[in-house]
């Protein structure tokens, strides 16, 4: 039974896949059956642990966990079972359930259907689970791909119990868990990292964003937070966490649809610099442009004498010198050099060897 799970934003999962992920977390056999689908305990011990999955007070499925003389489940293992229950509910919800609890409402905040998102956002505002005044933040926590959906959900659901500032899980998208909560200080991100480390999960990057004034749902803020998380993972200056409002130029570069093959068109000068056997010329020009062509500042950063910098600039390829003398070409060169930096950080271009 393969069921699309739009509530948590995960790819299509069937109940057997959820059971396999839970088995990996518990290191014991697991079976999951919807209510009314008969007995499925033959492959388990005589008295398996039975965990009912309920929706609005009614049992909709049963998780059966092999005991077989094993010790009782730990607190972390019970969190994994709870996460599996959430996945099962989300999957079965596609079959016609429409609960009204907070978990379901928060999941609807990022539903694929815009009307569902808007309705959920309106109801969440009425319940004061989110706010319009800028005090609500969407966080995207990008996690290593080796972590299962169950472990991601268990981690995300745990964060809803943090005090004084909880962060509620609303979706899994593209390797990230998406959380909604109040604005916090940097200590909150540090708490996320500590909890992930305790669970032996590697956080690649954390991004945050607040909904724009007048927003009718959280989709835009979630997209901005996800981009911020990807840049926090890719670029050292933003690692380990960054708010979308701090991205500046990098936000524009991250949204470009151009690929490395377009570099020669965007800026022939940047293409020539990238093609050099080492990156000394590119680093010189990038630094020079970063400081607004201020020779003194560039020399300080590059640890060069002023005469040496002038010598390097004079020996640049003619297409580069031409770009430096033209306002539009100079701007295109600067942007293209940052694009190269982004593409190298995300694996779309192979970094050049540094000069020796």
Which strand order spans the largest sheet, edge to edge or round the barrel?
7-8-6-9-10
Structural class, from secondary structure content?
A: alpha+beta
Percent helix: 40-55%
The number of helical runs is 15
Helix and strand run: EEHEEEHHHEHEEHEHEHHHHHHHH
Quick take:
The chain is an alpha+beta fold and about 350 residues long. The protein has 15 helices and ten strands. The strands form three sheets. Strands 7-8-6-9-10 form a five-stranded mixed sheet. Strands 3-5-4 form a three-stranded antiparallel sheet, covered by helices on one side. The protein has a two-stranded antiparallel sheet with strand order 1-2.
Notes on the protein architecture:
This protein is α+β, with helices and mostly antiparallel strands and 356 residues long. It folds into 3 domains: 2-93, no CATH class; 102-247, 2-Layer Sandwich (Alpha-Beta Plaits); 256-345. Helix content is 46%, strand content 15%. Strands 7-8-6-9-10 form a 5-stranded mixed β-sheet. Strands 3-5-4 form a 3-stranded antiparallel β-sheet, with helices on one face. Strand 7 and strand 8 (176-182) form a beta hairpin. Helix 11 crosses helix 12 (295-302) and helix 14 (318-324) packs across helix 15 (327-345). The longest helix is centred in the N-terminal third of the chain and has 19 residues, at 75-93. It is elongated, with a radius of gyration of 26 Å. The N and C termini lie far apart (59 Å).
